[in-house]
Design brief:
There is one protein chain. By secondary structure, the chain is mainly α. It has 15 helices and 3 strands. Strands 1-2-3 form a 3-stranded antiparallel beta sheet, with no helix packed on it. β1 and β2 form a beta hairpin. α2 runs antiparallel to α3 and α3 packs across α6. Belongs to the 'phage' integrase family. This is Tyrosine-type recombinase/integrase. Keywords: DNA integration, DNA recombination, DNA-binding. InterPro entries: CB (IPR044068), DNA_brk_join_enz (IPR011010), Integrase-like_cat_sf (IPR013762), Integrase_catalytic (IPR002104), Integrase_recombinase_N (IPR010998), Integrase_SAM-like_N (IPR004107), Tyrosine_recombinase_XerCD (IPR050090).
C-alpha cells in the first residue's frame, strides 16, 4: 500500500482545499519530490485546513476553512501554537516548513494570493535534545540477540551491522534493493534524501553478515522480490517500519530502552570526529549538504571529545 493516499489525506476538507492539495501534489510529482516529502507536505496543509474548520476559536476561520486563500498570519500562528500544545515543538516546526512551501506555491505558481501568510511567522524554537551515542558494548549486546542460523537472526544481524558500520538513515537501509549491494567491492548504494544517491563501503564483519544473509535469502520463497530485506514468513518485504519495530524489540532484549537506527548515526559522527576525521568526508559518507548537520550529530558526545582533547594537549599542565 502506498504511503500517500490523497483521499485519506483530504477527507473532511472542503472541495476547494481538496482541489488545491491535489493540484499541489501534481506539481510536487512533476518536481520529482519523494513520496515521503509529498506526504509530509500535504498532511501539514490538510491538518491546517481541518484545524480551521474544527478547532480554531476564531469565528472568522470559517472562510479560511473553505479556501486556503483566506488563511491569515493569525490563523497560522494559532495553528502552530495548537501543534506545540497537542504534539510537540519539533512537529510544529515540521508543519511550519511544509506550510511555507504550500503558500509559496499558492502565491508564485497559482497566483491565488498576493502575499504568503507565513511572512513574519516565527519558527518554533526547538529545545536542544541530546541523543546519546550507543556504546560499543551496547551494540555487542544487541548483536548478541541475533546469534544463530535462523533466517531472522541472520537478517537482523546484517541490518544492525549496516546501521552501525555506515551511519545510514533508517529509510536508507530499510529501502535497499538487492541490486544495491555489491559484494565484490563490499559496498552499498544508498538512495538518500532529495534523490541524493551515494555509495558507501562497509567493513569485513558487516560483509560477512550480509553475505550470510544473502545465502539465506536466496533460499527464501520471496527471493524474487526486488527489496533486499524480506519478512520472515510469507512473500513480502520487510519495510522500514518493520525494521524500526525489530530494533526496538532487539534493544529491549539487550536491556536498552528506545533503541533506534539514528543512535548509530549519531555514534558514527561522534566516532568519526573523535578519530580526527575530515568534516567534508563525513558529510559525503552520511549524505549531508549542510554544515549544520555535522555540528548537530554527535553533539551529545562533544563534551567527551573536548575532555579527551584537553587531556591529550594538557593545557596549563606543563608549567
Amino acid at each position: 500500500m502506498p504511503l500517500l493516499d490523497l483521499d485519506k489525506i483530504t477527507a473532511g476538507l472542503s472541495k476547494t482545499w481538496s482541489g488545491f492539495l491535489r493540484d499541489w501534489d501534481r506539481s510536487l510529482r512533476a518536481g520529482n519530490y519523494p513520496e515521503t516529502t509529498r506526504y509530509n507536505y500535504l498532511l501539514a496543509a490538510a491538518q491546517l485546513g481541518r484545524y480551521l474548520g474544527e478547532f480554531s476559536p476564531d469565528p472568522e476561520a470559517d472562510d479560511a476553512a473553505e479556501d486556503p486563500a483566506g488563511v491569515s498570519r493569525a490563523h497560522i500562528e494559532a495553528f502552530q501554537a495548537w501543534m506545540i500544545e497537542t504534539r510537540s515543538a519539533s512537529t510544529a516546526l515540521n508543519k511550519h516548513k511544509a506550510l511555507q512551501q504550500f503558500f509559496k506555491w499558492l502565491m508564485l505558481d497559482e497566483g491565488e494570493i498576493d502575499r504568503s501568510p507565513m511572512e513574519r511567522v516565527r519558527q518554533p524554537k526547538m529545545p536542544q535534545k541530546l541523543i546519546p551515542v550507543i556504546r560499543g558494548e551496547e551494540t555487542t549486546k544487541v548483536l548478541g540477540t541475533c546469534k544463530g542460523r535462523e533466517f531472522a537472526q541472520l537478517r537482523d544481524e546484517a541490518i544492525i551491522r549496516l546501521y552501525c558500520n555506515t551511519g545510514a538513515r533508517l529509510s536508507e537501509v530499510g529501502n535497499l534493493l538487492l541490486d544495491d549491494v555489491d559484494m565484490n567491492t563490499e559496498s552499498v548504494h544508498f538512495h538518500g534524501k532529495g534523490s541524493k544517491d551515494r555509495r558507501v563501503r562497509f567493513g569485513p564483519r558487516t560483509a560477512r553478515a550480509v553475505s550470510r544473509y544473502l545465502r539465506a535469502r536466496a533460499k527464501h520463497k520471496a527471493a524474487d522480490l526486488p527489496g533486499l530485506w524480506l519478512a520472515e514468513r510469507g512473500i513480502r518485504p520487510l519495510a522500514p517500519n518493520g525494521i524500526k519495530i525489530m530494533l526496538k524489540r532487539r534493544g529491549l532484549e539487550a536491556g536498552l530502552v528506545k533503541l533506534h537506527a539514528h543512535r548509530w548515526r549519531h555514534t558514527f559522527a561522534h566516532e568519526w570526529k573523535r578519530a580526527g576525521g575530515d568534516t567534508g568526508d563525513l558529510m559525503l559518507l552520511l549524505g549531508w549538504t549542510s554544515q549544520e548537520m555535522p555540528r548537530r550529530y554527535g553533539a551529545s558526545a562533544a563534551a567527551e571529545r573536548a575532555q579527551e582533547t584537553h587531556q591529550r594537549i594538557g593545557v596549563g599542565d606543563h608549567v
